[in-house]
Amino acid sequence: MVSKYHEELRNEDLSLPFTPMVVIELVSNTKEEAIQWLVKKIRDKKEQGGADLKVTAVSRGQELLDKSSPNLLLVGASKKRLLLGAEETGLVKECKDGSMRAFTCSNRGSFKMLTEDGCLFSIAECQYIIKHALDGLRARQEAMVPGYPLIRLYPGKSVLQRLEAQGLLTQVFPLHNKDDLKKLAEFWYGKLKPTYQPLDDIRHYFGEEIAMYFAFLQYFTLALFPKALVGLLYYLCAWEDYDKYVIFATLNLVWSTVFLEVWKRYSATLAYKWGTISRQQEFEEPRPAFHGVLGRNPVTGRTEPVYSNVQRSLKIYLVSMPFVVFSLYVSLCIMMVYFEMEFWMQSYSSRRPSPWSGLLLYMPGIVYATIIEIMNRINRFAAEVLTEWENHVLESTYQNHFIVKVLVFNFLNCFSSLFYIAFVMQDLKLLRQSLATLLITTQIVSQVIEAFLPYWLQTRNRQRIHKKRRDLPAYRRAPWLEQVELERSMLAYKGTFDDYQELFLLFGYVSFFSCVFPLAAFFAVLNNVTEMYTDAFKMCKDFKRPFLEPAANIGVWQLAFETMSVVALITNCALIGMSPPVRLAFRDAEADLILLVVAVEHALLALKFVLCLIIPDIPREIQTKLAKMEFEKLQALKQQRLQQARESLELNGG
């Protein structure tokens, strides 16, 4: 599934001296001197402050579609540059003996080839190396961008980030490889293989972050099978009486804990196999959108924008947090309107019973679920605007604040009504109906928005490009430009956030209240199997190819799921305490029942945390291999220092 990184694109009519892998898009009115300066900067050797890459500028005179088309730079790299870049970025590769080691040019012969013709790196890794080199372009003696005296450059600052912040650079994206993509698509979603994901092939083409998401999706689906089978058994054997949901609630208690503990060990195994568990974290540069007054960075010593932490904190506590509270208040108001609609519909159905009135009972829930999905989208946009306005320095800090806002919004939106029905109204029949309606409606609306809408937009875009190509005979002389033009106008893949968020909410539905609706896990399995195929399709057909992002786990989402598992434990303990058999046993001692439920819940929480401490997150076998890798690295460093010392003594005549 890995192609030769020297294989040429389909460029029979416009020959290129190298294989273009990455495209840099500049706005259409970019001045020629700025383009020439950037091209030279990319081509220059590293010692001269360049990236030492191969680049070709495609101007509007080379038969792009029209005068409003952007200026494109096609970037590639020599084999030598890729080898050096792999060592610079700290890529960890598999050796011929099966062990994993950080790649070094001096020992490149000891690493396993990906193909028979001697390729060491996948296309995704090559593009990652090129992106790393482009990100490393720094201003040196230049005071401004040629042709733009108002766009100042500062020594040591990223050139591409500066161009992007000033609106000259539109996007940087890697190109798809049609042959590899076709093979991956046929093997991935072209055949009916429910729950199976070709993780290694996905990782080679899209990188570890996306492969880790599909690994989690596959694992989540398989882990749901036992619950789905028990739920079907409940349904087929007519065990859905509320007196019998205690067994299912107990299953939820065990499942939510075991699920995450086993996943941590499985993800560690994958991370070792993919070489990301031991990769060193690079120094994180400021975000392109970060702004402030010029000052001196105490870490790098460079002159760059700085921003007051006090001012940022004031924005968070005086604006962002009150807005979040206000949004939650709006969500609660909408929830109360939903309950009014529900009560009115029940009253109407009891007064005028008919088959239609029975169906109408589900209408308030369907409308409410649709409103929830719309509100989730609006809140996501609001969280993005607020987090951008807070002006965080680092991308990681920005993402953490953004994720917290969105999860708080969505948790209250999706689950507040269910908690209210369960513990305030204590109406288990309405709880089952609401959970079923929310779960199924949310899945349908989500599939329409995330899968069918991007497909429709991309189909229209593809038709537009083909039509313009037919109208321009000169365009046929460079058929590969059609691929560049088509891909640059495709939707950008914004990361795995939305995909994880969907699984996060689904995890809540199947672990909180599924004991009163045992078929929830069954519908979740159906959703996940559909999600596998639709996500695979949209990655291959609807979105630009994303750059490889190393990932050793699912990041902050691990903490989010663990928090949900704690809430699930508390919720299921409370539901068991509310079950008719238990309440009957404590009919005359309600206070004793509450104390018992709280005591059991605390004991189970303590047991959960003890299990988390006892069960190692990384399997012992992987721990041994990592320790061996670290030992070998220290030995190699010691030998290198000894060699340098010998050479120094020889030069000094010692």
How far from one another are the termini? 55 Å
What's the number of domains? 3
How many strands appear in the DSSP assignment?
10
**Classification by helices and strands:** alpha+beta
- How confident is the prediction overall: mean pLDDT? 81
Molecular shape: globular
Low-confidence stretches: 1-14, 61-65
Radius of gyration (CA) equals: 29 Å
Profile the largest sheet: 4 strands, antiparallel
Overall helicity: 55-70%
- SSE order, as H and E? EHEEHEEHEEHEHHHHEEHHHHHHHHHHHH
Report on this structure.
With 654 residues, the chain is α+β, with helices and mostly antiparallel strands. The protein has three domains: 22-175, no CATH class; 186-618, no CATH class; 622-651. Helices cover 62% and strands 7% of the residues. Helix 11 packs across helix 13 and helix 12 runs antiparallel to helix 13 (428-471). It is globular, with a radius of gyration of 29 Å. The two termini are 55 Å apart.
